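quick one, 84 residues, struct below
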Amino acid sequence: MAEKTAKEHPPSSVTVKGRDVRLRTIGFILLAALAVWFIAANTGSVTIRLWVPEVTLPLWTVLAVTLLAGIALGLIVARRRARR
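---
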């Protein structure tokens, strides 16, 4: 069998004020800022049906809970993949 001969490259990074910052970190910061802005811009009340009951909440609360659930699920999936 042939062995892999490809060399691993270091992560892509840029220099900001004399420090190397990964592009992945910059992307995460931009997405987080956009998410916070989007949540802050949506302040109206909405009615949500949770199977049986209907709940009226501010939209920013619903968006924040959805964002936190997405982050938690993403971390769980990333940890499971890292164990393999």
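The longest strand covers residues 45-49.
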